[in-house]
Each structure stands twice: as structure tokens, then as C-alpha cells.
Amino acid sequence: MKKRILFCFAHPDDETFTVGGLLASLAKRDDVETIVYSATLGDAGKCGNPPVCTKEELPHVRKKELEQAAAILGVDHLVTDTYPDGKLPEHEDALVTSVRRLIDEYQPKIVVTFPPHGISGHRDHQAIQRATYRAVAEAKETPVEQLYYVTVVGRPSSRYGDSIEKIDVIFSFGKEEAKKVQQALLAHRTQHLSVERVFPSVHSDSFHKFQNREYFMLAWSKNGKKPSNPFA
After folding, report:
1. Residue 112: enclosing H or E segment and its boundaries?
2. CA distance 192 to 227
3. Would you give the DSSP letter of residue 162?
4. Fewer CB atoms inside 10 A, N or C side of the chain?
5. Is the overall model pTM greater than 0.85, yes or no?
6. What is the H or E stretch that residue 105 is in?
């Protein structure tokens, strides 16, 4: 049976910003299946400048962008929900149920989500983190063996980052995977302002994603052990 990894996020584009390199790398393996969950369709986001679509069209357009990005990254299963963008804290209990249903359906060994600070401080990011943690850690029975937070390495004084001392896994990927991440970022056309702000070189041949490294912290383990390489 293939090892399944579930990624729980709040918005279309979260997957590429956070774990794009990991997803592109796992897509090359025959023994792993990836599931990406987006709790919203990003209906509170921007439409681009100049606008790619109208505000009314945005949820539909962002879903299509997510589907395109997921295909580029080689995601095996994409699941989208329709919780209201910007209001996930108001739906946390329902989110717990939604994540548990995904766990029951896909039986993942590993789950990945945002850290408590949400990387950017976004309340939706923080809400999906809490809901995912509850869905995993509070379940009486679960197939999940580890829950990881994907994060960024920041200065000790940074509100939205974690020190290198807290990092349990540094996942490195190559130029081929970085190119996939670049293409997936560009697929989120409505969000180009955010993409270009975080990744100024996204339109350049010199693009890399934080030196092509992604950082993870172990948040919960079923047996209390810390595997040396959970994504192996």
C-alpha cells in the first residue's frame, strides 16, 4: 500500500507557497500519494492588477488556478471546500469534522499544515492549524502517525517564523522541482501581487524557493518518536 500524506491549508496557493518543493519531489515517487485540501476557494482574495476576473468570478477562477497548480506539482488528490474566506475561525469545529472525514477516507500516515502563527499571521491559516491539530490529536483512533507544521526560518524576534533550533526536518529539492514550483506559482494568476512580493524572482530563470529548502517541525507523534526522515 502506498504511503499517503495529507496537506491541510486554507486557500488556493497555500500549497505552492509552503510545500511546493516537497509536493513536486513526492510526485516522482511511485510509493507515495499526496492529498491537498483547501478549506476555502479564496473568495476574499484580490483579482490581480489589472484584474484577471471580476470579484464574483474569483472563487471559480481560483479553484481552476489551484487545479492547474496541483497538476503541475503532481498532486494525486485535490480536495476543495467552500468555507468562507477570511472567516475560518468562526467555523473551526466544522473544520475539525471536515479534516477527520479526509483522514477517514484517505488514511494518511502523515499530515502537514501551518504552524500556530500561520507563517503570515493570517487568521485563516491559524484556524486550519488548530482544526487539523484537533482532528489528529484528539481522535480516539487514527491512522496518522505524525503531524508536521511547515514553517519558515526567521529571526528569534520574528513573529511569523521559527528559529532553526526548532526545525526537525529540512527538505531540500533540486532545480527540476524548483521549476515546477515556479510554474505553479505563476498558475495562481489572480494572486500575482502576493507571489511577486514573496518571490521577486518568480519571472526569472534564476528563481529559487528560499534556496530550495522547506522547513518542518514535528507537532504530534502517535508513538512519541521522531522519525529521522518522515518524507522518505
Report:
1. strand 110-113
2. 37
3. B
4. N
5. yes
6. helix 92-106
